[in-house]
Amino acid sequence: MEARLPAHLEASALIRAAESEGGFGMVIQKGERDAGTILVVLLENGRDGRVYERMPQMDGTRLWTCAKREESPDSGEFSDYLERRRRQDPDLWVIELDVARPERLIGIGT
């Protein structure tokens, strides 16, 4: 099992990284300060939403995995998914990052 940063520090770091690249980041929901799971909503110019969450792997690591993609901004399916996840896990952090090529901020597609 790998060591992990407290959730509040990682959330702050993600937001600062987006802002340092000229983008925008904000906390949608605060979770458990130290051990909460982080769910990241990635956008580019407010569109093409993707939800990433770290998922446990067989070797004990946790890799960022795309859990949901916004198919149609008008369908409501994307926001319904986020709301379900928020209800399922009260310790969940939901962080939104709107920046060019946001996956690179979580180490994907670098």
Task: Describe it.
A five-stranded mixed sheet has the order 1-5-2-3-4, sandwiched between helices. The protein has helices at residues 7-20, 77-88, and strands at residues 24-29, 38-44, 47-56, 62-69, 93-98. 24% of the residues lie in helices and 34% in strands. The protein has a single domain, classed as Protein of unknown function (DUF1491) (hypothetical protein tt1805, 3-Layer(aba) Sandwich). A hairpin with a 5-residue loop joins β3 and β4. The radius of gyration is 13 Å and the shape is globular. With 110 residues, it is an alpha+beta fold. The mean pLDDT is 91.
Q: What are the SSEs and their pairings?
A:
Blueprint: H1 7-20, E1 24-29, E2 38-44, E3 47-56, E4 62-69, H2 77-88, E5 93-98
Parallel strand pairs: 2-5
Antiparallel strand pairs: 1-5, 2-3, 3-4
Short description:
This protein is 24% helix and 34% strand. It is α+β, with helices and mostly antiparallel strands and 110 residues long.
Please estimate the helix content. 10-25%
Label the CATH architecture.
3-Layer(aba) Sandwich
Number of domain units: 1
Enumerate the strands of the largest sheet in spatial order, edge to edge or round the barrel: 1-5-2-3-4
Number of helices: 2
Proportion in β-strands: 25-35%
- Predict the CATH topology: hypothetical protein tt1805
Report how far the terminal alpha carbons are from each other. Answer: 24 Å
What tags apply to this protein structure?
single chain; alpha+beta; globular
